[in-house]
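Self-study notes.
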Amino acid sequence: MAFLQAEHLDKVYGSGDAQVHALRDVSFEVHKGEFVAIVGPSGSGKSTLMHLLGGIERPTGGRLELAGVEMFRQKEEALTIFRRRQIGLVYQFYNLVPLLTVRENLALPLLLDGREPAPGQMEGLVEALGLQEKLNAFPAQLSGGQQQRVAIGRALIARPALLLADEPTGNLDTENTVQVMELLRRANRDGQTIVMITHNPDLALQADRVMTIRDGRLARDEVRR
């Protein structure tokens, strides 16, 4: 049975002459431990699909199941809790809380859920991120690459079923892009399921599988390894 299953997803914005059909009949499966890249031109529906996979928006039609739970049959409060516990989100522009330190930003998903990091969890994560000397720094005191590493760590700390990365290297230089991709590949080698949106074909080729979205439809689905 698929770990993530999307069936006939549709998403329509607006109505009448202003109606935009962002996704059309998109179906696919993702298995546990896969690293999937989603590519496509601007306006193709990539970000809309990411918002549906993350439970941020609800589809106009279709169904989505993650880890045995049909996401959009849940009421809003239950969906919020499920999303917080099961889905990690990494954005291009980091979305760190500026008034919190690195340590506090990393721990935030657990604290919002009334939990604390397990013994040694924070230390192991910080070492993997290479941020041992930055735990008490604030986001404004970090480079872009360091901020993105914090964002990835924050997404991973709750050990989510699914990690979604929306253009995670789009705001970084080449050196930091390499470091961020290595972090994602390392998490994937450790068993983390990852779906990444990218406009960069070279980065997409580092995934196990590349899905291409065009005009709101799944145009191609290539398993690379």
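Second protein, same conventions, sequence then structure:
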Amino acid sequence: MNWLDQVKWDAQGLVPVIAQEAGSGDVLMFAWMNREALSQTAALGRAVYFSRSRGKLWFKGEESGHVQTVHDIRLDCDNDVVLLKVTQLGHEPGIACHTGRHSCFYQAWRDGQWVATDPVLKDPEHIYK
């Protein structure tokens, strides 16, 4: 059986993906992959996602330069979530979020509201072309 056939793709042919920083264990972001994105990620050793809003493959860092080198690809016990262990490149410390932060998970629930707890490392106006 083809290794891609073992993934439980949703009705749109997608699987959710979590990108985790290999060194720190920080959860950097959540995204989606289709078969081609997962296949290219495995072949290239670089994160390739599927952008639902653009309806096409999205090579992480293609505009920002914030590329993710993939060290490990894992599939959860139900075969319906992929975990990538990555090194975030392009800025030190690595920026994974389009807001210019290290992680997309920068908001914490505090006293009945969401509070931004992580700093903007680089203004998004200076990241994207």
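Instructor comment on the second fold: Residues 9 and 15 are 5 Å apart (CA to CA).
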